[in-house]
Amino acid sequence: MMTAVVLEQLAANREQLRTLEPARRSPQLLDDHTVGRIKQVFGEQRDDMWLWVETGERWQAQDLNAVVAAKVDQYVEAFAASNTVILALADELAAGTIEKTLAKSDLELGVETVVAAVSRAANPFPDATLVQVRHPLTEDDKDETSWPWLPGVVLGMVAPGRWEIVVIDDRLVEGLDADGDPVYPVCHRAAGAIRLR
Predict the structure, then answer these.
(1) What gap in Å lies between CA 171 and CA 138, rounded to an integer?
(2) Which residue in 26, 100, 112, 194 has its CB near the most CB atoms, within 10 A?
(3) 96 with 116: CB under 8 angstroms?
(4) CA-CA distances (angstroms) from residue 86 to 50, 105, 114, 163?
(5) d(CA 151, CA 132)
(6) What is the rounded CA–CA span in Å between residue 167 and residue 150?
(7) What is the distance between the alpha carbons of residues 43 and 119, in angstroms, rounded to a whole number?
């Protein structure tokens, strides 16, 4: 019962993260009110996190087997971590809302545009960029031309013209980490095997 409730909340937080991710590349898509509301709702969730921890501890005090007790801990920790990530992303997005963009002078916007263009030319796939990447669905598939385009996130540039990417596709989950989050494969790809989402 407790695990199902926490998993439902964790899934809702992960869905909120998926909804906010595109705004990371274009924060001006959001307004101050929307970002403020996100910060308010998830700030309240953070402030109430002690209730989840305490409820988890009470649940574990019952006669649970070790596996279920460990899952309760993992799910509550993953839930808390997802809340922290959402609030950090909201803080990041608050700096670039449409109101902040409209308040800038033409000169400021022009300089930012030129700097961004130069940066993109040097590294077209900056860290945390949402991309599609060619990746096999099975280890046996060696024909790179037949690999499907799968969603991923750039972890960083590892060499000139090569990027490290985590491939986020539930068919490729390799297990769960200590927080109960799925572990996805990481690959290195050249620009020809990557495209922006």
Answers:
(1) 10
(2) 194
(3) no
(4) 18, 30, 29, 25
(5) 5
(6) 7
(7) 34
d(CA 73, CA 62): 14
| pLDDT per position as a tens digit, 47-93 | 998 888 888 888 777 766 777 777 777 788 888 888 888 998 899 89
Q: Of 185, 162, 161, 158, nearest to 174 (Cα)?
A: 185
Full-model pTM? 0.60
Residue 90: which residues within 8 A CB-CB, separation 6 or more?
A: 20, 35, 38, 39, 42
Other CB atoms within 10 Å distance of the CB of residue 37: 12
3-state secondary structure of 154: strand
Identity of the amino acid at 54: E
- Length of the chain counted residue by residue: 197
Per-residue pLDDT band at 1 (split at 50, 70, 90)? low
pLDDT for residue 164 is more than 90: yes
